[in-house]
Write a structure and sequence with these properties.
By secondary structure, the protein is an alpha+beta fold. Among the domains are: 104 residues, no CATH class; 103 residues, no CATH class. Helix content is 47%, strand content 18%. It is built from 9 helices and 24 strands. Strands 15, 16, 19, 20, 22 and 23 form a 6-stranded antiparallel beta sheet that branches. A 5-stranded antiparallel beta sheet has the order 14-24-17-18-21, with no helix packed on it. Strands 5-6-7-8 form a 4-stranded antiparallel beta sheet. Helix 1 packs antiparallel against helix 9 and helix 2 runs parallel beside helix 5.
Length: 588
Amino acid sequence: MPVDVLNIGSSGLQAAQIGIATTGQNITNASTPGYSEEVAQQVQAPAQGYNFGYVGEGTQVSTVVREYNQLLSSQINSTQSASSQFTAYSNLITPLDNLVADPSAGLSPVLQSFFSSLQNLSSNPASVASMQTAMSSAQTLVAQFQSLQTQVNQAGTTANSQISSEVTSINTDAQQLAAVNQAIQIGYAVANNQPPNSLLDQRDQLINQLSQETQVTVVPEGNMDNIFIGNGQPLVMGSVANSLTTVTSASNPNNLEVAYTNNGVTQPINEADLPGGTLGGTFAFRTNSLSPIQNSLGQIAIVLGSALNAQNAQGQTVQGTLGAALFTIAAPVVNTNTANTGTGQLTATLTTPGASGFGLTTTDPTQIASAAPIATSIATTNTGTGVMTPGSVSAGFVLADATPSTTLTFAAGPPATISGFPAAAAVSTTVNGVTTAIAAPAGAVPYTAGMSISFNNMTFSLSGTPATGDTFTVGANTNATGDNRNVLLMNALLTQNTMNNGTANFQGVYAQLVNAVGNTTSQVNTTGATETSLLTAATKQQQSISGVNLDQETVNLLQYQQVYEACGKLISVASQNFSTVLSLDGTS
C-alpha cells in the first residue's frame, strides 16, 4: 500500500483551517464580556505500518477547548459577591452618614439652638418676644426631627425597592441558567461529547452576574451546574429553576423579606442566610445601620419630648395656669409577628421610629411655663436665722395642693420641731440622703438644719437656726412675673443624663449615633475597597489565562497561514507526483 501523501496534506490543511477559524473567533471576541480564549488541540494521526517501518498519516484536531481555570472562576465569584455587598452597603449608608454628621443639617445645631432660646427666655421670662423666639426654636426642632426621620424612612423604602429588584434579577438569572444548563447537556450530546464552549462561557457569565446579587455556590453534576445561594438555598437544580419572591416581614410590616415557595407554601428566608452580593449588603445595612439610626432618633425624640413635657407641666404660665404638654409623642406600637401561633400579648411604653410622631401640641408661646407654681416666704417677724428655699413641685401637682397656703411654725424644743402641716397630708423628710416617710396627720416633725421637706407634691428645704415661733409659708405663686425657676429647670435638661439608663444626655446620645454611623461607613468603605482590589487582582489573573491576547493571536494566525500554505504545496506536489505516475503508466 503506497503512502497517502495527499491525505497527509489534506489533514494538515483541514487542521490549519480549524486553527484559523478558532483564532478568528478569538480575535473577534477579544472584547466580549465573559469570553474565554479557545484553543484547537491538535494531535498526530495514527501511523501506518509498512515493512520498512511506520509512516505518519497526518494530523487531526481532537477538540476545541476553552482556556479556563475553575479555581480562579470560583475566586472571582466569591470576591465579586463580597465586593458587591460592601458597595451596596456603602451606597445606602453614605447619604445617612452625610445627613446625621452635617453641622448645618444635623440635629445637634437645632437642639443647641432650642435650649439657647430657653436660656434667653430665663433672662427675661415675662418677655413675649423671648417666648416667641423659644416657640419658633421648638418648631424648628420639630421640623428637623421630622426631616431626619423622613430621610431615614426613605432609606428604608430604597432598601425595600432594592430587595425587590434583586429578587427579580435573581429569578431572571435562575431561569436563564436552567435553560443554558439544558442547552449544554444537549450540546454535549449532539457533538460527540465535545464541549459547547460558547454555552459554557454564557453559563459562567450568568453565575458571575448572580454573584453580584447574592452569594453563590456551584456544585457540578455531570454536564450541568447546580446553583445554591446564600447558606444553601437551592436556586437551580439542573434544568429546573426555583423562584424567589418578596413578602412583608412578619415581625416588621415596614420591611420586605425574601421567601421561596415549596409545595405551595411560601417560606421566608432568614436575612442572615442570604449574605453576599447587593442583596446581602442591603440586608446588612437595614439590620446593622438603618434600624439603630431609627431607634436612636426615636429614643431622643421620645425622651426629649417626655422630659420637656413633664417639666413644663410642673411650671406656671404667664396666664397663671399650670403648664401642659408642649410636644406630641408617638403613640406606643407593638408589632405582632404574624407567624406567631400562641396567644401571648405584649404592651409597650415607647415606639420607634418615634421621631415621626414628634410634634408640637401648640404654637402659643405663652404656654411655655417659665415660672414655678409655688412660692415660699419667711415671716418678717422671725427672729432666728432660718432660711427657706424657693421650692419646687413634682409630677402630679395641682394648684389645689398649694391652696390655701400652708404656714409652718418652728419650736426650739428640745427636740426642735416644725408643725402646721395639712391634716390630710403625708410628709416626707430627707436628711443627709436618708428619707423618712411620715403618715398623715404628720403633727410636729423633727427639725434638722438643711433638711428637705415634701408634702402635697411640693418640696423645699429649711436650714439655719430658727427661733421658737418663727414661721415659714409655702403656697401658690400669685406673683410669677419675672419668675424663671421652671424654665431654668427645662434648660438644664440639655446637660442632664436622662438617657441610656442615666448615663448620657441628648447631645451625647446623638454624638454616639454620629460616631457609630461614621465609623461603620468608614469600615464599610475600607473593606469594600479591599474586596474590590482583590476582585481586580483575581480578574487580572484570570484574564492572563482566559483572556484573548491579540499579539499572540496574530502570531498564531501567521503560523496557521504558513501551515495552510505549506500543506497546500504538499497537496500540489502529491497531485503532480500522482499525475506523473499516471503518465508513466499510460506510456507503457
